[in-house]
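Morning F.,

Quick status update on the modeling queue. The single chain you submitted on Monday has been processed. Sequence for confirmation:
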Amino acid sequence: DVQLVESGGGLVQPGGSLRLSCATSGFTFDDYAMGWIRQNPGKAPEWVSAINSGGTVYYADSVLGRFTISRDNARNTMYLQMDSLKPEDAAVYYCVRWPLDYWGQGTQVTVS
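Structure tokens below.
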């Protein structure tokens, strides 16, 4: 079974940093683009960042220059380094496999 398991969320002060991880299993990680989507209660999901199988990265304008996505194909794991966090970055962050066919359970990021 495909599994995506996020970790690394938590409470951080504005300006602080967090590193999210997404450990995967059940599929050939190298073959897929992966990404992060965040969501707040009552709001639509917001795409944050993506990385394709070749390592090309993409960012939403709202996080460009502050967040860094990466992947370790040997560990079947994706990361999101979040720096200079703002209160508006607070959300549940989901790890997703493209084409959004699998999502993790989410990890809460609170910036306060």
